[in-house]
Design brief:
The chain is 34% helix and 20% strand. The chain is built from 18 helices and 27 strands. The N terminus is likely disordered. By secondary structure, it is of the alpha/beta class. Strands 14, 18, 19, 20, 21, 23, 24, 25, 26 and 27 form a 10-stranded mixed sheet that branches. Strands 10, 11, 12, 13, 15, 16, 17 and 22 form an 8-stranded mixed sheet that branches. The chain has a 6-stranded mixed sheet with strand order 2-4-3-7-8-9, with helices on both faces. Helix 1 runs parallel beside helix 3 and helix 17 runs antiparallel to helix 18.
Length: 713
């Protein structure tokens, strides 16, 4: 059993031997372009996925949530293969290999990814089989295996198979008239060894059984045939037990699970005449892209494994033989099948600031002073209320909003539709290419158009990732603009799971800036002069560089704190290196990918990088610059990645109210003080989880913020 993993993992997955660090002689000029100064982004992303997996071993999380962390790791790895690994394979397939700042070519990166991913996935199944399942057994939650079924349970499973599974399963024998079927991305399938001849005298020897996605992967056994507790059976166990009923008269010699992960990235040309139509066509092909990973049960015979690899055009490094279900993400169904609130996070009620709890309208509250909400600790409902009130308010003339991800049944979308039906001028900039939300966004765009909303799809070639609402209201004979800007999506469910900032203001300059940004998105023309906002792809990157350079000019008096989800943009990393060399103290709170190498003497000795992983997905993006004791704070929709800063529509907005500046700094200080949910990036690329010293108070940043903002610990 390998559940106690060494903490000092390097960015390349090595466990004990750190990557060599070159310490230059005193006075030697450091080459900022040298590849050893940067970590590979894909391997860094794998590291983040591993930190998520480690939460499954953290007993401060409730048991069922630890299982969910194990499932989230699977979901993250699925997307990693679908997008990142698929992208590297595409580079090689079409001869478009590019050398990253870390010096790795795609072939080298894929080899390292395979080695590290195999290690992590082996560890995941070890945790599942030897830690989580035994602990759930102790709590009366049983995953009942075939060998453990009582006669009553076996009979119930037989009836369930005949009534629920057999009518919808389509076994496919493999012979010249039945070629290997096209299998849907990430679907559960079985390869079956057969002996004998069928009714037509065919002797195929092999068949494929796709498990319909409509079937649940976990089924709860009735309490009356069990001896207490919560008893669950895997769909795969049911199919294994009754595979012979799918092939009457033939002998099933073996039945083995497998799952193919395909390239799921969408490639759209920049000169499309109709983006929506093109996207609908691409979505159909996503389910059947090139194979990038094969997961197979570890008891599958080698000849069958090789047959599948050959069929999908994959090699040994793309093969993952696993000791358990091949589709662990679907284990999240436990939360709906098992009623054990004592084994999940306790609920909490997000707070609403006193400023907007009165009987006044939200417009009255915003006019008094700007509002800053920190989700999920503070409620997302004021954002929804802003639109609801705007829809019904006869003084509101127009509403404009960007929509990246909103959810299938969005109150936001309903409010926009209501406003349009009431005769207001409503414009929605819907980003159709929000990854894995494309189909949902096509549907909501149609719904909005039916209600009379003007729907545009932004700018082809530049994803609209900015989070903006603009409301134009007539007040006392003049027009006033109300604005909402956010670091996260307009998605009420995610607002309970992700940390994000929401900012509401009627500042004239910010309102004018947001109006100009909407003009750029919906119309045509030169970039307009913006007063307070930074916006990509035009000014955000340049302004961040200039702010870092300003702190560097202050030397040891400089101070930088940045909280983001990813840091890969090389010019920003170089600017941070130079700030460190000038003596600036730099703290980076980077949830996921980080290509910067911290703590290297002469290069980055004044830079510290930490990652916070806990109950909520850290998603706030905030930039703090000391500015010689006149601090400047910005919140943003953008991460420090080349695509966000140079190839997307993004915003960074200033927080100018002194109390709100102090509040953001207090939030950042809580993250910096975290000594149990934070992981420190080491110079060799390893992450070490912080632990409170003996006698030191335990500080879990998310719990501190939860208690501070809701009164709930």
């Amino acid at each position: 059993m390998r559940t106690e993993i060494a903490r000092n993992l390097t960015a390349h997955g090595e466990r004990s031997v750190p990557a060599p660090i070159k310490i230059p002689p005193v006075g030697e000029v450091i080459d900022l372009d040298a590849s050893e100064n940067y970590f590979n982004r894909e391997l860094s992303q794998l590291q983040f996925n591993y930190r998520v997996l480690k939460q499954a071993l953290d007993t401060t999380h409730p048991l069922i949530n630890r299982l969910i962390f194990c499932c989230i790791f699977s979901s993250n790895m699925d997307e990693f293969f679908e997008i990142r690994v698929a992208g590297l394979r595409q580079q090689m397939k079409y001869g478009r290999e590019t050398l990253g700042a870390d010096g790795l070519m795609p072939e080298q990166a894929l080899s390292e990814i395979s080695r590290v991913a195999h290690e992590y996935i082996d560890e995941q199944y070890d945790i599942l089989n030897h830690v989580l399942i035994p602990e759930m057994e102790k709590e009366g939650i049983h995953f009942v295996r075939r060998r453990e079924w009582t006669p009553e349970q076996a009979e119930w499973v037989r009836k369930y198979f005949e009534e629920e599974i057999l009518p919808v399963v389509s076994p496919i024998g493999l012979d010249p008239s039945h070629p290997f079927p096209r299998l849907v991305n990430k679907s559960l399938n079985f390869i079956v060894e057969l002996d004998g001849k069928d009714a037509f005298g065919r002797e195929t020897g092999m068949a494929i059984v796709p498990a319909p996605r409509s079937l649940p992967r976990l089924v709860r056994l009735p309490d009356e045939i069990c001896n207490g507790g919560e008893n669950l059976v895997f769909l795969s166990s049911m199919i294994h037990a009754h595979a012979d009923e799918l092939f009457p008269g033939m002998e099933v010699k073996g039945c083995y699970q497998f799952r193919l992960t395909r390239n799921a990235d969408l490639e759209l040309e920049d000169d499309l005449e109709d983006l929506a139509s093109a996207l609908r066509g691409e979505l159909l092909s996503r389910r059947f892209g090139d194979g990038v990973r094969l997961e197979v049960a570890d008891n599958c015979p080698q000849e069958l494994v090789q047959f599948l690899l050959t069929e999908f055009g994959l090699g040994q490094r793309d093969l993952y033989q696993v000791n358990g279900p091949v589709n662990l993400t679907r284990l999240m169904a436990v939360t709906s099948l098992v009623d054990r609130p004592d084994l999940t996070y306790s609920s909490f009620s997000p707070s609403i600031p006193r400023q907007i709890r009165s009987k006044e309208t939200i417009f009255d509250a915003i006019r008094k002073r700007p509002i800053l909400l920190h989700h999920p600790f503070q409620n997302f409902s004021p954002v929804v209320d802003l639109l609801r009130q705007a829809a019904k308010d006869p003084q509101v003339l127009a509403i404009r909003q960007t929509l990246y991800r909103t959810g299938a049944n969005s109150e936001i979308v309903e409010a926009l539709a209501d406003a349009a039906r009431r005769g207001k001028e409503v414009t929605a900039v819907v980003e159709l290419r929000a990854r894995f939300s494309e189909a949902e966004n096509l549907e909501l765009a149609s719904r909005l158009q039916e209600a009379g909303v003007i729907v545009v799809y932004g700018v082809v070639g530049y994803k609209t990732h900015a989070k903006m609402i603009l409301i134009v209201r007539r007040e006392e004979g003049r027009l006033r603009r109300y604005v909402h800007l956010g670091t996260g999506n307009y998605h009420a469910v995610n607002a309970r799971l992700y940390t994000d900032y929401s900012f509401m203001t009627c500042d004239e300059s910010i309102g004018d800036d947001v109006n100009k940004l909407f003009q750029q998105l919906t119309g045509m023309g030169k970039a307009l002069k913006i007063k307070k906002l930074f916006h990509a792809p035009f000014t955000l990157h340049k302004r961040l560089l200039s702010l870092i350079e300003r702190e560097a000019s202050l030397g040891e008096k400089g101070r930088i704190i940045i909280k983001i989800n990813a840091l890969t943009e090389i010019r920003l990393i170089k600017a941070l290196y130079q700030a460190s060399q000038a003596g600036v103290q730099v703290d980076l709170i980077v949830r996921g990918i980080c290509s910067l190498r911290p703590g290297v003497p002469g290069l980055s000795e004044n830079i510290r990088v930490r990652s916070i992983v806990g109950r909520f997905l850290e998603h706030t993006r905030a930039y703090y610059f000391g500015n010689d004791d006149k601090p400047e704070v910005y919140c943003s929709s953008a991460d420090c990645m080349e695509r966000n800063l140079l190839s997307r529509v993004e915003t960074a907005f200033p927080i100018e109210d002194p109390e709100l500046i102090a509040r953001v700094r207090e939030d950042l200080d809580v993250y910096l003080a975290d000594n149990c949910q934070s992981w420190m990036l080491q110079p060799d690329g390893g992450y070490i989880q912080n632990q409170p010293a003996e006698g030191e108070e335990r500080i879990a940043s998310q719990l501190v913020l939860l208690e501070r903002l809701t009164g709930k610990s």
